[in-house]
Amino acid sequence: MASNRRAFLTATAVGALAAAPTTATAVGPPPHPATAPAALAELLDGNRRYATDHSRHPDESRRLRHQLAVAQHPFAVIVGCIDSRVPPELVFDQGLGDLLCIRTAGEVLDEAVLASIQYGVEELRIPLVLVLGHERCGAVSATLAHLETGAPVPGHLALLVDEISPAARRTRALPGDWAEHTMRAHTAWVRDAIRADPAFTSAHVVAARFDLDTGLVSLLP
User: Most exposed: 1, 90, 193, 207, by fewest CB within 10 Å?
Assistant: First the structure.
């Protein structure tokens, strides 16, 4: 799976970030949940607060900002979509220093995303990676429109369509909402691709779906 270009880019990115002063060995706020089950439970508890209008908006104090200037100890990596309705810190009711968020349209992977995940897993020792898809995803809709019409995809958007199209083709014959099936299949594929990468074997990787109507996050099989 890895290429020479990917190995070079990943090593360069991780090496540069590791040299920064915000390493896990510096003095700073106390560590977050140290295990993947505890981290996942914290995320889901925070999401229930968000969905029921009981958000605490934690970890935003001036004192903590000063501590985080020295070191960070996030407890989960969130690989999510750029959609403005799905900000991970709000969806999971977390604050500064809690989450390492990586967002691309449709959670599409590239070398920068993979290097960023590796930094979180290897350098910050984050135990959990959660891939967060969501309903009514614009990147999924654009992919389905392209497959239905065959119209050319302009510029850089072609990358999104190329990456999401396999999931769309696999689910096209399923009864029900093609966009929903595609989103679920693509989110699960991203999870599986991260799981299969030897750079992330120390982390627990899960996939989840965010419901725009209820505000709730549910884990995908």
Answer: 1
